[in-house]
User: Fold this.
Amino acid sequence: MTKNNQVIFEDLGTLNYETCWKYQEKLFDKTVQLKIENRNNHSEFKTPNHLLFVEHPHVYTLGKSGNETNLLINESELQNKDASYYKINRGGDITYHGPGQLVAYPILDLDNFFTDIHKYLRFLEEVIILTIAEYGIKGERIAGETGVWLDSTIPAKARKICAYGVRCSRWVTMHGWGFNVNADLNYFKNIIPCGLQNKSVTSLNAELGIAEVNMNEIKEKLKKHFCALFECELISEKNHSLV
Assistant:
């Protein structure tokens, strides 16, 4: 297969979760189908890679291995909080997305980079670790768990600043990370985040003690570190046909 290190980048702004999920699946399915056709026809067409940035209205999502009891509110309470709820096909348990949280969805053909899902997750974590380091914050990992944590070695203080959940089929990825930049942390009180008891969450603006971090600045830093780690080139594109 001819490798492709270019990644089509799209900033979708604020978009409801269901529309974005369908768009991810459209890109994912196209890439998987191209790989199947390449194999069947012994072709060498390059498979595309995509990186989506987006913020969602308030939503809770439950991964395929998640436990519904980790959602602590009922349907009526969800409506009162103007939040929606979806069971989805990524790994991981329950998480929250909302305004002020920068969500990234890489739809990558890992055959273009490396076929190692553990390395892939570590690279995604490293993007955040390198980004928050520019603000003087030390991001860490906890053995056996995904995500980026602060004070990971002190159980009473450990808190997650970025959560991950991915799907991979035929080495094509979808879903990704939720990075709490300026997120309203009160919404996390309605779930047991990622199914982990006695673990708290945080955001970049809370750690810095400021009202708001410049989101455009964050996006540029994330893109820079993503490109360096994956040794890729981002090609910006605006898509007007999401579904």
Remarks:
- The longest strand covers residues 159-169.
- The domain at 6-236 is CATH 3.30.930.10 (BirA Bifunctional Protein; domain 2).
